[in-house]
Amino acid sequence: MALYEHVLLARQDVSAQQVEALVEQFKGIIEANGGSVPKVEYWGVKSLGYRIKKNRKAHYSLLNINAPAAAVAEMERQMRINEDVLRFITIRVEELEEAQSVMLQKRDRDERSDRFDRGPGGDRFDRDRGPRRERPRREDEATETVAGEA
User: Fold this and answer.
1) Which residues are within 8 A (CB) of 83 and not within 5 positions of it... i.e. 6 or more apart?
2) Strand order in the sheet with 36-52
3) Of 32, 43, 15, 36, the residue nearest 106 (C-alpha)
4) pLDDT value of residue 109
5) pLDDT band at residue 9, thresholds of 50, 70 and 90?
6) I need a labelling partner for 135 at 20 to 30 A (CA). Which of 21, 48, 71, 126 fits?
7) The pTM is what?
8) Residue 90 in 3-state DSSP?
């Protein structure tokens, strides 16, 4: 059987539980057709690069799939019918990653850095950046050009 990574984008106005139910439905289709889904990751609601069907954000989910091509084709057919699915992409891979995906690692890293970056006031943007550099004055340049023209 072939190995696939599948990313699913669901509408922003459905709840996380409904997205989880959608993923379980598609997982059931894969398993009914002789495949398996060893890993499912919910990446959360993220902003889209451009509007898709009047949505600016979407729920992202990753599925690692080990299944025949017919099972994946049936799952994709069901996704095209479902109104809650905005976009999806299925990519055939040589091997599935067992560890956390890069997206979840990034989110964990961002949460940790937010926790440590905050100062006593709680806002991470209130850090002292040191003294401000002096910029060269432009008045000298302006008087030279005026004197040169006269």
Assistant:
1) 11
2) 36-52, 55-67, 2-11, 85-93
3) 43
4) 77
5) very high
6) 126
7) 0.69
8) strand
